[in-house]
Amino acid sequence: MARPSAAILSREIIGQAAIDLVESGRDLQVVPLAKRLGVSVSSLYYHVDGRDGVIRAMRDVLVPQYIGVPAEADGWEERIRLEVESSWRMYADHPRVMQYLLTSVINEPDVMRFYDAMADALTEAGLPDDEILTTIEVIDAFMFGAALDTLSPERILDPESAGPRLAGLMAAHPSGTERNRRMFDRGLDLLLSGIRART
Amino acid sequence: MARPSAAILSREIIGQAAIDLVESGRDLQVVPLAKRLGVSVSSLYYHVDGRDGVIRAMRDVLVPQYIGVPAEADGWEERIRLEVESSWRMYADHPRVMQYLLTSVINEPDVMRFYDAMADALTEAGLPDDEILTTIEVIDAFMFGAALDTLSPERILDPESAGPRLAGLMAAHPSGTERNRRMFDRGLDLLLSGIRART
DNA sequence: ACCTGAACACCGTTCAAGT
DNA sequence: ACCTGAACACCGTTCAAGT
Questions:
Q1: Which of B1, B28, B70, B87 is the most exposed place for a label (fewest CB within 10 A)?
Q2: B39-74: per-residue pLDDT in tens?
Q3: A176 CB-near residues (< 8 Å, 6+ apart)
Q4: pTM for this structure?
Q5: Can you spell out the DSSP letters for A93-127?
Q6: In the structure, how far is the CA atom of residue A99 from the C1' atom of nucleotide C11, in angstroms?
Q7: A28 Rama class: left (phi>0) / alpha (psi -120 to 50) / beta
Q8: Inter-chain contact A119–B170, Cβ cutoff 8 Å?
Q9: How does pLDDT run across B189-199, given as a tens digit for each residue?
């Protein structure tokens, strides 16, 4: 079966299988990926440029699922929230995949669209021109850090070894997904509040 | 020379060499590391528990250089700034090393000290108890994202393909280290301003 | 205690060969 | 056009052997 009647592989199929593999907790490796696809390793190389190509394929599968709907919103603040929210969900839904996208730069057009929308919103907010790009970068960085936070273990700190003050706070603190979600919301609130104070 | 008169390796020596290797732009690999140390690969395994052990060794070399001096400061805001600044510098000075520390959790006691100091400062600021931990996590996440931002290429976006609005802003925007530094400062400002608004 | 050399399983990549 | 099998360089790890 050197040439099947219908192609059994494609960039998308490979990208999706890689996402599944990685999200199931394993490393991104070509051999297990091929096995999962029931295909010989070298077959992958016809559709995708090596391991790095697999990473780009993952990105190209994920991005269209989350980015692109230029949400209907009233007011700059709501626009920023919606914009950030959609990128954030992509990160938070696939934190393990994120780790690999870290090195590979996100697709130009997508970043461009995000930056453009954000620049519009911040201009409308009345932020001075020379602060706009930096502010976008701040939000971007926070989003990124918040996404990677998902990767950290359920309990980051051991209450046993904490001081009494910290231990008390930790007892009433959520963990896992809820902790992460709350952190993201609060961060965005703080940033928006800070931006408002500058306009 | 199976047993030299004076040991030529140690955890620290290995950790430092690994930092140099990684910071020079290459991947963290055991074989080049051994070569750089003028030693056989298997020798590393006596001092360090494999590749992961090398990562921990890097961390144990870096952390004491940056963390630990509990800075003299007046006022909660200044305390937070100093605290965050020192962690941040470790990240920003060694962004490539950071990539590897991402997976490995930072040493318990260090995180604990950071969280404790931050909790004190935020309590002094008058922030409600149920917001303190979340706020610390926000700052932590931002710090992290800002550090990883250092890894992104000099010019993230191509002004050619940007809209006129964005292109104009980009012309007046710094790049490289300065861009990164400014972004970090602005982000911390925004967050602190947001925190102030909540007290 | 501290380092070496050989050996092994495994991974990423290439390429000629098949249909 | 699309997949396979073999071959290769290289990496991480182990372990017996040396002093």
A1: B1
A2: 999 999 999 999 999 999 999 999 999 887 666 888
A3: A154
A4: 0.91
A5: H-HHHHHHHTTSPPPHHHHHHHHHHHHHHHHHHT-
A6: 20
A7: beta
A8: no
A9: 999 999 999 99
